Input
Amino acid sequence: MLLSGRIPEHVAIIMDGNGRWAEMRGLPRIEGHKRGAERTREVIEAAMEVGVGTLTLYAFSLENWQRPDDEVSMLMKLLEFYLRKEFDELIGRGVIFKSIGETWRLPATIRGLLKEAGEKSSGNKGMQLVLALSYGGRNEIIRAVRKAIALGADPESISEQYFSSLLDTAGIPSPDLIVRSSGEKRISNFLLWQAAYSELYFTDALWPDFTREEFFLALHDYQMRERRFGTVHARVER
Ligand code: IPE
Ligand code: IPE
Ligand code: MG
Output
């Protein structure tokens, strides 16, 4: 599929539907997560190919910690496996790794891998890959409020710009496009502050079926949108 026209600078994806994909086939949920991880790799490639500047992937929410222990531990193992398998190659190709969320709650091995990936890729110039892990939007906002108070910020001086600089996403532009797979039409505590003017795209495709073609369909849909940011002009770019 040929994509001309503007490519969103930042695409953020709620990768949902792995469990249902597996259950529909009578397979254990983890099989859906494994298949989903393959699609994640495919979508990272597609995003790099078309020149997306930042790709944020919602891989594990704070609420997901409440899932059964065996699902959580298998998800963590899978995450570790894929980080080990992929990150060197992606870094070699210019990707800059970042993570957002309460990552201190993750197993030490994963924390170590994220730290290493972040350090090794900090001088890179390619696509920024942001992993939302143990992430919750409300929690991120509360942690930012705590930081402001701890820094002794003057209430009157707290601007949107200052507050943004206290979030995990400091320095990362707001998402232009938020994609959610699996047919659910909700945000599920993802990037609450940052999503203020994001375009939203929902597809019924379950994440293990979300191929590069599905990704390009989402970009096409975005290209048809008129973004107004509250103004009356026909096309306003920010
Ligand atoms: C998304 O798939 C992956 C994670 C939340 C970790 P789900 O596991 O939520 O799949 P469904 O929604 O149950 O189908
Ligand atoms: C959102 O999916 C979180 C991730 C994709 C990581 P969930 O499956 O956890 O969301 P709900 O429970 O359907 O809202
Ligand atoms: Mg789900």
Remarks:
- Residues 10-136+174-223 form a domain with the Undecaprenyl pyrophosphate synthetase fold (CATH 3.40.1180.10).
- The mean pLDDT is 96.
- The chain has one domain: 10-136+174-223.
